[in-house]
Amino acid sequence: MRLNLFWKLGFAFFALLIAVLLPVDFYAERALRRDYERAGFEQLAAIARIALAYPPQPAALAPSHPQDSAGLRGWVAKMAASGVRVTVITSDGQVLADSQSDPQTMENHADRPEIRDALATGHGQSIRHSVTINSDLLYQAVRLSSAGASPVVLRFALPLQTVDQEIWEFRRRLWLASLVVLLVTGAASLLISWSFSDRVDRLTDFFHRVAEGDFRPLEADRAGDSLEALAISLNATAARLDRTIQTLTEERNLSSAILGSMVEGVAVVNASERLLFANRGFAEILGLDVPPQSGSALLEVVRQTELIEAVRGVLKGEPRVEAEIVTGTLRQHFFAVTVAAVSAAETSGAVIVLHDITELRKLERIRRDFVANVSHEFKTPLTAIQGFAETLLAGAIDDPQNRIRFLGIILEHSRRLARLTDDLLKLSKMDADKLELEIRRLSVSQFVESCIETTQRPAAGKDLRISVKLPERLPDIAADRRRLAEVLQNLLDNAMQYTPAGGQIMVSASANGAEMTFTVSDTGIGIPQADQPRIFERFYRVDVARSREVGGTGLGLSIAKHLVEAHGGRIWVHSEVGQGSQFYFTVPLFEPERTTLRPPR
Ligand code: ADP
Fold first, then answer.
1. Confidence (pLDDT) at 266
2. What are the angstrom distances between the C-alpha of 451 and each of 361, 443, 445, 496, 517?
3. What does the pLDDT read at residue 4?
4. Is any ligand 1 atom within 6 A of the Cβ of residue 541?
5. How far is the C-alpha of 447 from the C-alpha of 486, rounded, in Å?
6. Which of 304, 428, 451, 466 has the fewest CB atoms in 10 Å of its CB?
7. With a cut of 50, which residues of the chain have pLDDT below it?
8. Does ligand 1 lie within 6 Å of residue 527's CB atom?
9. pLDDT value for 565
């Protein structure tokens, strides 16, 4: 590129110079030649005038003894001293004398144009090649008439060779001077074109840089011309482009970070049902190992017909379609699907948003079940109370034997109702986040011992052995003594209720990291694997009849779970049917700064 522009400009300059020089040379040569010829003729005319003023002796011109014309030769030699060729010719063309040749050897000159003209008019001129002396000459001829004799022609000639030489000399100088001018101006023009093409090249390089994303400004060359103005405006354009691209990149990064970190699944489909974009959430919800490639067909990625139908609805012109899909077989997840039309520039398509509503559906189910369960739980004792009260009113009150029994049953069922109401109240308090914990420093051994004390007697009554296994020097924990006692008591009650006589119950604790893990294990009936994840749900019982029989409400474990979690711990179970169960729960260790800061809940 550099050489191209440089040479192009250079050659253009040379061509221009040559184009000017050639016609100058041509016309100068012609003008000069004309000038020289005119001057030559003038010189010849002057000599001719002198010759006519001082003609040769008429005797010398007598044709009777032409060869004996020493006088004529002398005259010719004198005239020729001016540097011209002098020839004397008779009217019939015979050469009488010549300053440069022997007239004997010269041919008849009657046909020479200047001679003919001189004889006819008195004057003759011509420029032509001389056969006699073999060179180009300027001829000027005059007629010399003398009385009584036939006229003769005096001819004077100047060789053109000197003219040619002078013209050639002039042209040589012209060309030499032009060459010098050519070289000087050529060098200057090359320098200018070089610097010009260099600046154009720098602009081109700058364009390439910008095309590749490098927006550093071009150095100013301070030439003050339009190229500099161009460079300045290009710099401004590049800076603006840079800012725009940076803003766009930041916006794009922000949107992809937002879309990428969203738990909602988001995807965009074009009019031909091909995915243009899908975030990680979308792939995870649909169980895809990797986010689908842009351009893959929606049908290959998605199996849920409800979703495909919704997309098609929008692609057919609906502005927005809502649907619901279910994923997973064992653990089902519910997703609300919103498909909305998008049209950007000339393309149209649909944006899909998948929102997890599993928790909502679960809560709805729990609420439904809860209402049914509560009604059911209340119904049995109420029916019993109502039935026995009616029986008593109907006359059984007078039956001293049954009266006491019936009243006993009524009392048992009303206690059950009271327990249920109690548990429900606790739960509703916890749900409303109104449970206030009084977190204090608690010694594990003291806490466990006090709980066991109240359990020892009923356990002994059921032929169960309770043991405590605590390592020495356990760190203290941070807990609400009353609430945590409720948890441990509940687990101990369950262990006693679901362990046949002769069984063993053990309470142990161990510190690990920042928490204490309590374990209540029994050698009881155990819990089937499938029920284990659900026993912490409200009203969930493995064996409903048995639970009722032992006076359970089905709420104990869910209350325990709430209380443990309110302390910042976890609760879980390991169990095997027929072997026994181990319930675990954790409580944070006492740490002076953290514990005092912990607000009551
Ligand atoms: P309940 O009042 O019925 O005991 P919980 O919420 O305390 O209710 O327990 C839920 C269910 O978990 C019980 O009905 C029982 O089937 C089972 N369960 C709890 N503890 C034990 C245990 N130690 N051994 C066997 N099953 C248990």
1. 92
2. 39, 13, 10, 14, 16
3. 66
4. yes
5. 11
6. 428
7. 68, 597-601
8. yes
9. 92
